[in-house]
Each structure stands twice: as C-alpha cells, then as structure tokens.
Design goal:
289 residues; alpha+beta; 3 domains; 4-stranded mixed sheet; 5 helices; 22% strand; elongated
Length: 289
C-alpha cells in the first residue's frame, strides 16, 4: 500500500541517517582518543616541566647564595689590595690558621660540631693576631658555604682519619676580616721510630764552617723528602722538623776531627705522622776502603 511504501522510504532514510551518524560518531571517538592521548602527553610534559622548574629554582637560590658569598670575598679582596702599600700583614697566604684531626664516617651532626670547634679556635687566633670582624655582620672568617658542605660530606664518606686545616686564602691585613678555605688530607704514618731517612757520604773536611754547611745541605734534602712523603711544612719557613743543636755541634766536630770520609745517616727519633713535626738525629760512620 501507499502507507507501507512511505514507511519503507522513511525507514531507509532513517537507516542512512543512522549510518551517517555512526560514521560521524566513530570520527568523533577517534578525535576524542587522539585528544585524550595528547592531553596525557601534555600532562606528562607539564609534570616534567614542574619538576624542572623546581630544580632550576633550587639551583637559582643556591647560586644567589654563592653570589652573596663571592661578593663578600671580592669585598675582602679589594679591601686587602687597598692596604698592600702600607698594611701590616698578620697572616701570610697559605698559612695555617687552625688544624684538627677528625675520624671519618662519623654522623653529620658530630662532623659539624668538630668543624665548629675548629672555626672557634680559628676565630680566637685571628682576633689575637689583630684581625677584626665586619661591622655589619660581625663575621671575622669568610668561608664558602658550599665548601663547608663539601667538607662535611667528604668527612662523612671517608673511612680513615683526616687532617682538616683552615688556611688563609690571601695575605691578611691587621684590622681586616680573614678570607679562608679548608684543606683536607689523610693522616698517615710517614716515618717510623729509628727509620733511616737519608744516607749521604761526605769527604774529609777540616773547616768547621764548611762541615756545618754540608750538614745543612743534608738536612735540606731530608726536609724536601719529608714534604714529598706528605708531612705538612710550616708555611712561614717551609720546614717540617727539628734537630738538636747539641747533635748538630757534635756532628760538626766529628767531621772536622775525622781523617777519613764519613757516611752520614739521618734517623727519625719518633713515629712521625702527616701532621709532623719530624724530629731527627744524625749519626756518622767512618768509610773504610
């Protein structure tokens, strides 16, 4: 009938419309999935950017702190330069201000207590020598916070005994602050008691002054060897130890009175560690041909 034809036509149109809507829906679903993946990717990128931003912020803050410390250092340097013509130098560059021995591997809190004790010791010494604190901050020692943190970490990670020294980074002028830095090295046994450090032959010498000069030359070689082996020298003199004046006088007399060449031995009096000092004695033996 006519109505059935109309209904069939409407049904066919509806089916076509359904197919079109289904195709459109599928396209929308594909677009949704694409956008959803893009959102997930961008979310991950956002999280990564947030993390990077946090790291950069921390690095910026650290650098800003370093800049403040460097500005203080530069201020001290310029202050020192302005006094070079007439200033009274109370501490030489590289001179040891304070020293302590710290066992490695101890807790951070204990390490910091040891370092604070070292800094207090250094404060007292530089004040006695004539340094003066900054009027604004009251600070007398200028030390990089980053270097301090690195020293704490290094001590914690060590399993040995460490010598921690505080050294002047530049000449210190009376009335000024002190720019300083740390120096760390292992405390080890360098020479044992009665160890022969150096042996040298000297010919027959009749003049006391010449004999004395030869002995001083031998002692300089001993000093050089001791420093090369790791003993810390005294900054002002570059010397690492001592010898008895009586022993030196007796050696000069032995050389002058000898009719043969002598073999001179320099011997450690005690067990000597990196911190020194090295105490020695000299002995002489005739060389018989």
């Amino acid at each position: 009938t006519q109505e059935i034809k109309v209904r069939n036509t409407m049904l066919e149109d509806t089916r076509k419309e359904l197919e079109e809507k289904t195709v459109e829906l599928n396209k929308l679903e594909e677009e949704f999935q694409r956008l959803n993946k893009q959102i997930e990717l961008q979310t991950a990128q956002l999280d990564s950017l947030i993390e990077t931003r946090q790291k950069l912020t921390e690095e910026r803050d650290s650098l800003q702190q370093e800049i403040v410390e460097l500005q203080e250092t530069v201020k001290a340097l310029y202050s020192g330069i302005s006094w070079l013509r007439s200033g009274d130098i109370i501490i030489d560059q590289g001179e040891e201000i304070a020293m302590t021995i710290i066992k490695g591997g101890i807790p951070e809190e204990q390490v910091e207590q040891e370092l604070i004790s070292l800094l207090n010791q250094a404060n007292r010494k530089v004040l006695e020598l004539g340094a003066e604190p900054d009027e604004k901050t009251g600070q007398i020692l200028i030390i990089s916070k980053r270097e301090y943190d690195e020293v704490v970490q290094k001590i914690q990670q060590s399993d040995g005994e460490l010598i921690v020294r505080l050294l002047a980074a530049m000449n210190v002028i009376r009335g000024e602050m002190v720019l300083a830095n740390f120096a760390i090295l292992e405390n080890k046994l360098v020479f044992t008691e009665n160890e022969i450090i150096l042996v040298e032959e000297i010919p027959v010498i009749n003049d006391a002054k010449e004999a004395e000069n030869r002995l001083f030359s031998i002692l300089r070689k001993v000093n050089l060897k001791a420093v090369q082996e790791g003993i810390i020298p005294e900054p002002r003199t570059s010397l690492v130890g001592t010898i008895s004046a009586v022993n030196l006088f007796e050696m000069v007399r032995t050389i002058v009175q000898s009719e043969t060449a002598l073999q001179i031995k320099v011997i450690a009096l005690d067990d000597t560690w990196t911190t020194g000092p090295l105490r020695v004695r000299m002995e002489a033996e005739k060389i018989l041909h």
